[in-house]
Design goal:
Shape: globular
Order of helices and strands: HHHEHEHHHEHHHEHHHEHEHH
Strand content: 5-15%
Radius of gyration: 23 Å
Strand order of the largest sheet: 1-2-3-4-5-6
Largest sheet: 6 strands, parallel
Number of helices: 16
């Protein structure tokens, strides 16, 4: 294998899935050398201490940090394990419940591990450890090009039954007992406002400005400011009280730690719309996927998003049309004759930003036809 031409080895390395790169590098010295950059091109990061510390270790390595091009960040919450009785009852009542019989000590150890992960995640958010670690790591990545914010629930759920060794012995033992990921990773979608703000704020301290941003769960709460009468505690505004809040606060939009210590003690900068505008100025491509949720300031948020996207950037906003069609006092009856001919699951392009002004289905369809499926008006 080491006698193959370098160019042939390079082509093979580029064709191999990233998940198989590590195995490829073990085959021979040529693959080990050429596969190294691809192994670190994309770094997945979860809201776990060992995952954040893994990113930090890579950023501190004089060679590996140069290969990092993308951070794929998923900020899913660990579910509340509650009491041992509730945990055991819920665990064994779900489909796919453990079929094996485990000793009392094994079950107790799994429960305590779940509690530790839950408590540690809350502690990291309450102390700002997640943001501080992201900032420290990203500030050392000289070639970081872009960030992808996305729920990793499906990916992590699939790996729950056979977690990779990097997740640690404690997690592997816990997953073996629990078997079902739905008690550890809640199935309902999480709000990503705080997580998105933390990543974008950290990216402002990168050696180079990022060139693209892709969010699979773009929350409009990111566009809120102090003074907005919405109570959602979004990216720039909302409650900024103490850190000892109830669990619900961590599952909502709230951004605490006095706005990440006044954005690392720079009074000329702020979170919320100013951060998005500053971030989007350097981008060449941005892709946002969001769902419509009722908010009295929805129109205002749309205007702010338009302002942030006003720079010359290839924007691909995608909106969940089905959620919007559930609005009140709107005639959204769908003509039966068009069923099967209009694909409302298609990722609409820029014209979808104006759907909020439509008051009936005919207006939406007219825009769809004029623009073409997913095209611009």
């Amino acid at each position: 294998m080491d006698k193959l031409p370098t160019e042939t080895v390079r082509v093979i390395a580029e064709l191999i899935d990233r998940e198989d790169i590590l195995s490829l590098r073990l085959t021979c010295r040529s693959f080990a050398a050429l596969g190294l950059p691809r192994q670190f091109e994309v770094i997945p990061v979860m809201l776990f201490r060992n995952s954040l510390e893994n990113l930090l270790r890579i950023s501190e390595h004089p060679v590996y940090r140069n290969y990092v091009l993308t951070i794929k960040y998923g900020g899913e919450f660990v579910s509340n394990p509650r009491t041992r009785i509730d945990w055991t009852k819920n665990e064994w009542s779900l489909p796919g419940a453990p079929k094996k019989t485990f000793s009392e000590s094994e079950v107790e150890e799994a429960y305590q591990s779940h509690v530790r992960y839950y408590d540690d995640q809350k502690l990291m958010k309450a102390t700002g450890y997640d943001f501080k670690t992201l900032l420290s790591a990203i500030s050392r990545l000289p070639n970081l090009r872009g960030v992808r914010i996305m729920p990793l629930f499906s990916e992590n759920s699939a790996r729950f039954a056979n977690p990779p060794p990097a997740w640690g012995d404690e997690f592997c033992s816990m997953a073996k007992v629990m078997a079902n990921p739905y008690r550890f990773f809640p199935w309902e979608p999480s709000y990503f406002v705080r997580e998105t703000v933390a990543v974008l704020a950290a990216c402002k301290f990168a050696p180079k400005a990022i060139r693209w941003f892709d969010s699979k769960n773009f929350e409009l709460g990111l566009l809120s400011c102090d003074g907005d009468d919405n109570g959602d505690g979004g990216g720039g505004g909302g409650v900024n009280g103490g850190e000892d809040e109830v669990e619900a606060d961590y599952r909502r939009h709230i951004v605490r730690l006095p706005r990440f210590s006044n954005f690392v003690r720079d009074p000329t900068k702020d979170l919320g719309p100013p951060l998005l505008c500053a971030t989007f100025q350097s981008l060449t491509t941005v892709k946002l996927e969001t769902s419509f949720t009722y908010n009295p300031n929805y129109g205002l948020y749309q205007q702010r998003l338009g302002t942030a996207l006003s720079a010359e950037v290839a924007a691909q906003p995608c909106f969940d049309i089905h959620s919007y069609l559930q609005g009140e006092d709107v005639d959204w009856s769908f003509p039966e004759a068009l069923v099967g001919h209009i694909d409302l699951n298609a990722p609409f392009a820029k014209w979808a930003q104006d759907v909020c002004g439509a008051r009936c289905m005919s207006e939406v369809l007219q825009r769809y036809i004029v623009a073409g499926a997913g095209g611009e008006v």
